[in-house]
Amino acid sequence: MRVTQAEFIISAVGPDQYPADGLPEIALAGRSNVGKSSLINKMIQRKNLARTSSQPGKTQTLNYYRINGELYFVDLPGYGYAKVSKSQREQWGKFIESYLLKRELLRALLLLIDIRHPPTRDDVAMYDWLSHYGIPVCIVATKADKVPRGKWQKHVKVIRETLFVRGGDPIVVFSSETGQGKDELWSLILERAGK
Ligand code: GTP
Ligand code: MG
Questions:
Q1: How much is the pLDDT for 107?
Q2: Which ligand is nearest to the CA of 39?
Q3: What is residue 95's predicted lDDT score, i.e. its pLDDT?
Q4: pLDDT band at 168; cut points 50, 70, 90
Q5: 3-class SS of residue 142
Q6: Contact partners, residue 182, CB within 8 Å, separation at least 6
Q7: What is the residue range of the signal peptide feature (predicted)?
Q8: Which of 100, 107, 134, 181 suits a disulfide with 174, CB 3.0-4.6 Å?
Q9: Of all protein residues, whose CA lies closest to atom 12 belonging to ligand 1?
Q10: Which of 122, 176, 180 to mutate to test the pocket of ligand 1 (most atoms within 8 A of CB)?
Q11: Rounded to whole angstroms, how far apart are CA atoms 159 and 126?
């Protein structure tokens, strides 16, 4: 995919702010700091359009990026950040849940997992919830540059087994540093977006 146009559209805090042009949406979820914003930047070949966080857990909005006037990336707030209060966490849950359940334009969710570590309880809960509601998931094992290539499959196996990955859900090994997995992920995204 050759990205010729990528623009930040809005940090939405509610449904009335979601774009109204009917383009398909690909959302990104995962623990705070897992590399969601970095992945967006790598996919669109821009250094810093999606803001990478110096303050993990702070972003509580849905950040919309329009790509080539064809689809949106929706950067969701990271979960599992210890310093976020319980009430903030509950608020996060409700906001994201209603987006994921009600947004008809949502075509797939990229669930990011750090390849170095087994998925956490939060990751497992998120994946179970998405599967339960039949939301199409693509798992992305991030920060692959931090693990020797020869060990990738071993780490992917741990992810697959810890999450009990359902048959059809792909796992893409990805690095925002090297661009590993970028083409494969674009193909999956375009297929999901019906492009
Ligand atoms: P929140 O917005 O807080 O939820 O975090 P995020 O998931 O958007 O993570 P972000 O993209 O801000 O990245 C967090 C940190 O990990 C940054 O310091 C990035 O430079 C680093 N990082 C992200 N992806 C990679 C990667 O593929 N390889 C390496 N080595 N570092 C990465
Ligand atoms: Mg981010």
A1: 97
A2: 1
A3: 84
A4: confident
A5: strand
A6: 42, 43, 174
A7: none
A8: 181
A9: 52
A10: 176
A11: 14
Position 84 confidence tier, pLDDT thresholds 50, 70, 90: low
Number of Cβ within a 10 Å radius of residue 174: 28
Domains and CATH numbers, the chain: 6-192 (3.40.50.300)
CA-proximal residue: ligand 1, atom 28 (nearest) = 143
DSSP category for residue 194: T
Q: Hey, what are 118's tokens?
A: 């087994």
Which ligand approaches the C-alpha of residue 40 most closely?
A: 1
Distance 67 CA to ligand 1 centre (A): 21
Query: Could you tell me the sign of the dihedral formed by the alpha carbons of 76, 23, 18, 103, in that order?
Result: negative
Ligand 1 interacting residues, C-beta cut-off 6 A: 30, 32-38, 52-53, 56-57, 59, 78, 142-143, 145-146, 175-177
Whole-angstrom Cα distance, residue 84 to residue 94?
15
